[in-house]
Amino acid sequence: MKCHSYAQARQSAQLDLFQALPGDMAPRDAQDLMAHPFFSLAKSRRTVPIDFRSGDVTVRVEGTQAHGIATIWDADILIWAASQIVEARDSGIPTSRLMRATPYQILRFIGRGTSTRDYTRLKAALDRLQSTSVATSIRETTGRRLHRFSWINEWKELAAPDGRPEGIELILADWFYCGVLEQSLVLTIDPAYFRLTGGLERWLYRLIRKHGGRQKDGWQFDLRHLYRKSGSMARYSDFAGDLRALVSRQSMPGYHLELVRFSPSTELLAFRPVP
Fold it and tell me: What pTM, to 2 d.p., does this model score?
């Protein structure tokens, strides 16, 4: 299925089904999601909205009392979906917002276990992705209008007539699907990303991968600017302390981190690709 406008998508009563591809493939992440604060960085439930504005960019994210805002760990499912879509597109296989897969396929790809507990957590993540409401000006070319959506329009568990589980089906947001398929706004990420355990650590890797890329001289950010971009609910002093701890650990896959202080009030995080 080709990517349609929102109005065209509404007129399409029937989506073609895309069956998840088997085998290993490179993980791909959506650049818009890497560069802006779309997800909670906390493992505990967050219901306080994320409200980010910078220049022409607006990002507003809200969660329900029951589920909270989708977390950066929940976003692994979107990385899986983007990887599937790009792999299929590059192989000449038709894709669709309507995807079918087994929990095993998703969990294995994102480096999780496959126990009953892991399946339960996967379903909770799908619930948060479906119930989280996003409003953003990114990729909107009509002035100040916002595009509103949930990461997943709907999802369901499938079962055979005898009750045996047959996987899950989900429908991706048109905004996300179009960004991955038509505009190719994706980057390959290191599979080691899935082994990063901290929310701030994961967020920082995605931001570094987006802005630093493979540039020989790397990139740098003012710490206070990073704090605003993160959407973190921590105090700035705690956020800065956590960043310093990350620099000490040097656990960022493929990148070397360094703190540069210009004055008592100005501190930069510099990063460059590891040779």
Answer: 0.92
